[in-house]
Give the backbone structure.
Amino acid sequence: MKSVPRSERFDDVYFSAEDGLAETLHVFLEGNSLTARWEDRDFRETFTIAETGFGTGLNFLAAWELWSRLRVQNNPRRLEFISVEKYPVNSGFIKDVLSGWQDEFGDLLMRFCDLYPVPKTGMHVIDAAEDVRLTLYIGDVAEVLPKIEARVDAWFLDGFKPASNPEMWTADVFAQMARLSHAGTSFATFTAAGEVRRGLQAAGFEVHKVQGFGRKRDMLSGVFTGGVAS
């Protein structure tokens, strides 16, 4: 792999220096038990993932690749992936930093880069495949989430670390997550910060501290129960 891309604005990396794809698989796909849930087909016609922090699109590509591998021929189900990004990168940057996983993603990476929009403020709907749609919002998460109407089945919380980017980890964001969730909606995030754990619990999520990726000892995952802490 090339050197890991870093945001100077937030003084943080876009993904793990150890192995960004392995981190995504562990934290977000396994953290939300996506393989088991998709193999069991235990969901409605549409499975919706919502993400805070699109970054390079690595999480979306990993979810799309897994979905494609598990897809049953003539299966009418769809994957809807909703993501918010305030400071978008361009397709050339994405192609460059993710090219080390060309073998893992195959033609999905090039297809995504070809479809990736000019990164300007607003909503961008990308039909990545017949059964996969990405809705990418370029804007502030606090302004975007209240405008979204969806029934989210899994959350990827992937903003830069709370200490560097506190606006992505507020009570208002967690409240919007609760509004868009249903009983059993899962979430996963790389961070184990106490303020994140308490904020999610206050919004009605059951939160567990579990094994993190690589040198990170802990991360958080859990489900929405609807019971808001007093």
